[in-house]
Amino acid sequence: MAAPPEKTEMVYVEHCKGINGLDKVVLREVRGCSAEVYLYGGQVTSWKNVHGEELLFVSSKANFKPPNAIRGGIPICFPQFSNLGPLEQHGFVRNRLWSIDNDPPPFATTSTNKAFVDLILKHSEEDFKIWPYRCEFRLRVTLGPGGDLMLTSRIRNMSADGKPFSFTFAYHTYFAVTDISEVRVEGLETLDYLDNLKNRERFTEQGDAIVFESEMDRIYLGTPTKIAILDHERKRTFVLRKDGLPDAVVWNPWDKKAKAMTDFGDEEYKHMLCVEAACIEKPITLKPGEEWRGRQEISTVPSSYFSGQLRPQGALLSG
User: Fold this and answer.
1) pLDDT over 70 at 292, yes or no
2) Binding residue per annotation — 89?
3) In terms of Cα–Cα distance, which of 279, 295, 208 is closest to 247?
4) Is 125 a catalytic residue?
5) Could you tell me if residue 183 is inside a domain?
6) What per-residue confidence (pLDDT) applies to 108?
7) Lowest mean pLDDT among 53-62, 141-150, 159-168
8) Are the CB atoms for 45 and 63 separated by under 8 Å?
9) Is 71 labelled as part of a ligand binding site?
10) What is the CATH number of the domain that holds 138?
11) Domain membership flag for residue 5
12) Looking at 90, 123, 172, 232, which residue is catalytic?
């Protein structure tokens, strides 16, 4: 009589090599969802649901070669967003090599999630030359049993000379969508925004939802803790929940800018949308020893129809 097949133990966290030999961590949950995090940039580059469908956009032309930033996934913008400041665009942590944090301070959570990784980036002498402050950046990436993806950042001022520092921040999340012309963003109605295409002039959102017909690059201010991104073609709604991040960036480069970017396909703008939990308008200031925490959680729910309209209110009101 043949012996019963051995049960293979679930591997929730796997350390392995990715593109061009870069180190990455793969997170898996029992139902089949997964996420990938590269130590280069501390960057999530993949988030798949239980059907193996990719939920994040990474350009086919993305560079996985330091010192280039990886185009797609969830780059982290710190200590500045955009290029308004002395540093390179979106700061420098997205093109630094992070380390596994083997001794993280306790997180205030009762969660029993097993698929998570703790990363740490300590300010180097090289960084000190371009940004003269001492800081420590801890990042926890967690994949929940239901497929939710959570990123928690903890930034501490490690200065010994009594100097505070200020920064702006964003989780530059690239969502994969079927057709950008069939996407709506809800939850930002009636809010003020700064238009990056018009020298950050301030406007008030007039529509009952944000739709896309041309290039968009806006910073919405004082945003709610939940935002919904509706993919009409896929009948899927992304729900973004955030904490400690009062602003939200909405960006799509459209055709002309897409063709001008060397690490972005000419037609790929049709299949991506950035909606970013951020803190930009009012920079965060930390005194020595102080810590800031910012958190983003993204999940998906089916979109339902009523008279031909998507109804995300349930997604926004639940939970």
Assistant:
1) yes
2) yes
3) 279
4) no
5) yes
6) 61
7) 159-168
8) no
9) yes
10) 2.70.98.10
11) no
12) 172
